[in-house]
Write a structure and sequence with these properties.
about 325 residues, 3-stranded antiparallel sheet
């Protein structure tokens, strides 16, 4: 029998009643168990112990955040919602955050006006965004987003869940599970030993997989044709560069494509890290000196035939059979 998961739902209360109802509805429609602390007084320390026990026994934790920080816990200086969130993180319960989109229409009466609460709310949202997070504009959005996010998390982070007592297994099945568990443990050890012996660093000790390359981003704005360098410099090991363009190096065709795709991928990562959503890929590039380092390593270690012009720009590139062996050893 498939387990039923207990989902702990946390948020401020008065301003998010409709949204909580939609999340509870979504969980129930999926056949799982929503848990909320509306019936308890969070200000009562005894009730906090009950909340802790409920989070301890929950399989997943959902937090909904809008434009109110909520009531503050005496002596702690954080809201009750943030206290619940921190406890779930501390206990290792998989958390899913749902933060209101800044462009969403929202009643002014449901905004915090106190500057300290606004600042605290900003810090809390930043904390929530460090874990899987979705942005919603309405309670209807939440219903769909919560259902989809939970289904994905069930697959990627499976939890024990709850099953009917009359569906539990007998001693024969328990013995078989124990045997299979032992066998699985032995296979894991063998697999680990095999992986260590077949690690690219051991198979190809002369390839500088661990060499660190500096990546900086150039950008232009508006009608300007001049690219400006961002202050922040990223470090990336050579093995990660190879892994990211592996499939494109092995395919015949436009030899410039892997490096264009690597540039686009790096620019997207840069914007995601800085929470920037509106940008044009053509306004960004990676300086030539970074790719010159890549060409140098490929050429020196006989990984590819590389032909460049006097300025170091790539004219021709063809990977060697040796390079194909190296690329095949890299994990996906």
């Amino acid at each position: 029998m498939a387990p039923k998961y207990q989902i702990f739902i946390s948020s401020t209360y008065e301003d998010l009643k409709a949204e909580r109802d939609q999340v509870i509805k979504a969980v129930l429609e999926m056949g799982h168990i929503p848990v909320g602390m509306e019936m308890f007084s969070a200000a009562d320390e005894e009730q906090w112990k009950i909340i802790q026990r409920q989070i301890d026994s929950s399989d997943y934790y959902v937090v909904i955040v809008a434009h109110r920080y909520g009531s503050i816990v005496p002596d702690l200086g954080i809201s009750y919602t943030e206290r619940e969130y921190d406890y779930a993180i501390e206990k290792g319960v998989p958390t899913l955050g749902f933060v209101i989109d800044n462009s969403a229409e929202w009643p002014h009466s449901k905004y915090d006006t106190d500057s300290q609460r606004i600042e605290a709310l900003g810090y809390f949202k930043t904390k929530v965004k460090q874990k899987p997070v979705q942005f919603w504009k309405s309670s209807g959005d939440l219903h769909a987003q919560v259902a989809i996010a939970l289904m994905k998390t069930f697959n990627t982070q499976p939890r024990p869940g709850w099953v009917r007592a009359d569906s539990t297994v007998g001693p024969e099945v328990s013995d078989e599970i124990a045997r299979l568990s032992k066998e699985n443990s032995e296979l894991r050890i063998q697999n680990k030993q095999f992986s260590e012996n077949s690690h690219p660093n051991k198979l190809f000790p002369l390839i500088p997989f661990e060499e660190v390359l500096d990546i900086s981003i150039l950008s232009k704005s508006g009608d300007s044709k001049q690219y400006l360098r961002h202050n922040k410099v990223y470090d990336m090991k050579f093995k990660y560069v190879l892994r990211s363009i592996k499939m494109y190096l092995l395919e015949p065709g436009n030899f410039q494509q892997p490096f264009k795709l690597f540039t686009d991928m790096t620019v997207r990562a840069f914007h995601a890290q800085n929470d920037i959503r509106d940008y044009n890929l053509d306004d960004f590039l990676i300086p030539d000196e970074f790719f010159k380092d890549i060409f140098r390593i490929l050429k020196i270690h006989n990984l590819a035939f590389v032909k460049t012009n006097r300025g170091g720009h790539l004219l021709e590139l063809e990977v060697s059979d040796y390079c194909k062996q190296v690329l095949a050893s890299l994990p996906e």
